[in-house]
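Hi X.,

You mentioned you wanted examples for the new student's onboarding notes, showing what a folding record looks like when two proteins sit in one file. Here is a clean example. The first protein comes first, with its sequence line followed by its structure tokens.
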Amino acid sequence: MLHLSAAVDQPSAYDADSYIELARLAEHGVLDFVTLDDTFARPGLDALAVLSRVAPVTSRIGLVPTVTTTHTEPFHVQAAVATLDWVSRGRAGWRLDVSTTEGEARLFGRRHAAPADALWQEAGEVADVAAKLWDSWEDDAEIRDVATGRFIDRDKLHYVDFEGADFSVKGPSIVPRPPQGHPVRVIDASDGHARRTAARYADVALVRSVSAAHARAVREELRASAVEFGRDPDALRVLAGLVVDLGDGEHAAEPGHGGGGPRQTAQGPLYRGGPVDLAELVASWHGEGAVDGFHLTPVEPRRDLERLVNGTVALLQHRGLFRTFYPGSALRDHLGLTRPANQYAGGPS
């Protein structure tokens, strides 16, 4: 199954309507999910809050904000992501990221900047404790018994008693278990420091590659590492990350683009050409088994996403390479991922 997703980043946009328009366009193209980037390093809207606004006016598209795990409280992070899963009726994910600069650390004043490897280890612990907190409510913990006045079956709430290197959490969560059990975890595994965390915790790993051979090598590395952590490698989706500039319309791709592959730039691997050549690239890399799909970041969001959906996606659908309808209502359904079992169900509180 080919998976496709897109970024809806608009650094200068401060109104909800522009994000809603892009998310609806991506949903029209039956894309798996959209991402919205966020960072403490520059001004901008809170990605999780923006996609919480998008949730009620979309119905199928997955919603994946970037959530920085550095300097933030893991308990609050998991509650916010769980809330997005509830308000979107099971379509939430979160893209874990870290803050490495001293400037970002000074915004909070709690500690100095730390090396990337330490921060990604901490991000893994945040992913771990989030899953435990989501499981701290069993699915049927809410009883809502009006006659007795009992809202919760306390025997189905659990303390997580997490002790990590940088924080501890007792739990349980204040938010009931999300509709998906665990909202989908996305990690950009292009950087070596993040790769180990992605192999252990990610449902979707993003890899910025300029060639199918490199993407395949990273995918194989991630899958092998997942096995070492006791995971089923088939439960990990690896998507190639590309910046796309479809301003050339239907004209042939520039040398070094299109069928010849993307070109490395300061913003990452860049494809510049037409929707047809992009469809050929997507079909080629996926057909070779290099990746499970693509995560595409438009250079000009409205223009390029429209050409992606009405051009590239339509062609892939016509060739029978991409679906024409959503297989279910949850993001895990789109990605072909099962709903995780509750690790505390039936155990002591």
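Then the second protein repeats the pattern, sequence line and then tokens:
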Amino acid sequence: MGQSPKPQPQIPVVVLAGFLGSGKTTLLNHLLHRSGGSRIGAVVNDFGAIEIDAMAVAGALGDSTVSLGNGCLCCAVDASELDVYLDRLARPETGIDVIVIEASGLAEPQELVRMVLASENRRVVYGGLVEVVDAAEFDATRARHPEIDRHLAIADLVVVNKLDRAPDAERVLGLVRGLTDGAAVVPATYGRIDPEFLFDCRPSEERVGQLSFDDLHEEEHSGPDDEAHGHAGHLHSGYDSLSFVSDRPVDPRRLMRFLDSRPEGLYRIKGYVDFGAHDPANRYSVHAVGRFLRFYPEPWEPGAERLTQLVLIGSGIDTPLLGKELEACRSDAPHTADEHGMWGVLRYVQDPEEPGPDPESGPGSDPETGPDFAPEIDPDFAPEIDPGFAPETHPGFDPDHDQAP
């Protein structure tokens, strides 16, 4: 009997928002040029019948671009309609590694986030809300659009763009940081941020047989004048990262306390966790962006070394302190476990009753629905759940974080 096919990796969906003229399209073009071989699927939404932004997006992206004209995305479609576009981009044959939704300058980012979280496509996962701010026009924009304070409060990453044009850049940066709710705030010119903030800059599968867009771009700009283009390792905004590896299991309660108290500026957490005796059959893939958190149990490969491997990425984070806090999460008694230890983790595991990403693959094709995943839960355990489903109650989404002030 053949083995069930391994589930396809999930594709992060990043919402790119910001008021008119803030530099969203410039930032998207930068990501397309500097994707490190990863293929980006773009959903470009103009307000108006002539799709100027779609024309401006770099390269002929073909089936990796969906352009939505003549209307604001959050008003023109509902979650099910957005799923049609996400389904198209998330098909395995497209080879797309990350999807970026470039919203209209008049879109309501809170609604876009809810639409992504309400997606029924199990191949996609929320990748964060990136709010782009025009530093030179910030005061004027805030006067015209006071709702920008609300947008900044729910952002996971804020890019303060056009700093070279702002006469008081430090004041603007300080003001923006004061309006966020712990989001990473990075300065930029010409939309140049490090793509590693948003996604892994390598394709999920090796591509052979043709030059990538990145190869062509490198050839075009290589040479002694490369530095003039501003792309040769001189990104205006850097990031801090921490790699943590442990051959001892992690205590789930301690890890959840660490995750619940993660500091300002810590934007991404990714990797795998070994909870030892708490679930010896599975390792847990962890995906956190901003305040969004999700765990994905998957069976250990036979003979695999059982390690916890995490990467933390942020701006202005204290990496030595975070390393010490993660060290303190290691279990003092790796061979014992109590029956309630995993409750905090299981809150952030997607509902195993939902269908898998490929229903035709049969039982066991999805690590969350397969026979190896059967955590014991006290039948009397009944967490409080809003009886009326709304996207903001979706697992891993903190409704308090997305609440308008």
